[in-house]
């Protein structure tokens, strides 16, 4: 806008200097003054004409005649040979300071410089506008900064609050309170962090609960044989003149309880050992499932014979697999032992070894009592027995299938059950034939 005013004004100064060049060369003061007053009124400004020395020859306001103008723009035109120059000046009108624009145009005739025309016009309106814009700019800048500051402090407040509750939660967990959870709000990084925290807290809570349950169950299971042993020994100790047969029967019962306790402690130790195996350093050997199953059957044959149970082996896969031999044999033994244990006299047990894709499968099928649908998912839990009184006679503690499951998972395999009450059960243990292939599949 200011530039437009300058170029407009420059044009007028140039036109005027051309128009008065002749009269100026002739020093025609009267004509020059008239022209200056007229043009000054037209453009709502003041017109001055100076000679080569900068002395005012004509002033449309008739105030500065004979005075020397020293403004730099006048000097630029008079001494540096420029055709045009301009400058801004603050002028005191007596009442107020106003901003004026001086446009200086050379007066020349036949390329000879005679002097210059100085057009003076108020640009106070533009300056006022610039001033106002500058002010609004400051106000907007201030407001934007204020809003930014408020937003920043809100953000910091939000972050500090979130971190504070995360800290409180972590401290609570460090002190053993695993029930603590964080509020998950929004979908930002903090929400992800809160979610991760909650998952961690949930896992810790699960581990803690399962540890307490385990200790409670193990203590209970160990207490039961101890209690019956205590009753039996007290009977022997305090009952005078006990019949030798009864006495021997009691000792036999104590012996059975000791066997039960030993088996249970062995299973507990085995479970701890299995849980502590470092899978990345686990040494896998090549072993034949067929010979493993054959060994198990030979060992358990006498128990099966006691109940007139026939055990059949169907070997459809003869190859070797990568495994932890001792543990896998133990797992198979647990399955076959259960099949015999939970099958009535005269029943049969069929063990099939086959290959299904990359997996070697051991199926142990019996014609026993079967397992109800709702019990099927629970039987793999530690200490879980379908009927406590029933298994009390059979002497189990409910760790057998949990050990089978732990061994299956250690091999990246799995265990499943198909069963119908009264008709029998089939346990299906699947183990990868090649451990490395299976592991790299999991690591991907
Ligand atoms: N083949 C089967 N037929 C019917 N019920 C079974 C069979 N195998 C397991 N069960 C049920 O599942 C329960 C859990 O089995 P698991 O082998 O874990 O424990 P257990 O045999 O009672 O004791 P142990 O720790 O001595 O093996 C058993 O108590 C039994 O009720
Ligand atoms: Mg068992």
Describe the structure.
The protein has 444 residues and is of the alpha+beta class. The chain folds into three domains: 2-122, Beta-Lactamase (2-Layer Sandwich), CATH 3.30.450; 189-274, Helix Hairpins, CATH 1.10.287; 280-443, Histidine kinase-like ATPase, C-terminal domain (Heat Shock Protein 90, 2-Layer Sandwich), CATH 3.30.565.10. The protein contains twelve helices and twelve strands. It has helices at residues 2-25, 29-42, 72-79, 124-174, 189-238, 244-275, 289-306, 325-341, 373-376, 388-394, 400-410, 435-443; strands at residues 46-51, 56-59, 84-92, 97-109, 112-122, 285-288, 310-315, 320-323, 348-356, 359-366, 414-420, 424-432. The strands form three sheets. A five-stranded antiparallel sheet has the order 2-1-5-4-3, sandwiched between helices. The protein has a five-stranded mixed sheet with strand order 7-9-10-12-11. Strand 9 (348-356) and strand 10 form a beta hairpin. Helix 5 packs antiparallel against helix 6 (244-275), helix 6 (244-275) packs parallel to helix 11 and helix 8 (325-341) packs antiparallel against helix 11. It starts with a helix and ends with a helix. Mean pLDDT is 89; it is low at 440-444. It binds adenosine-5'-triphosphate and magnesium ion. Magnesium ion binds next to helix 8.
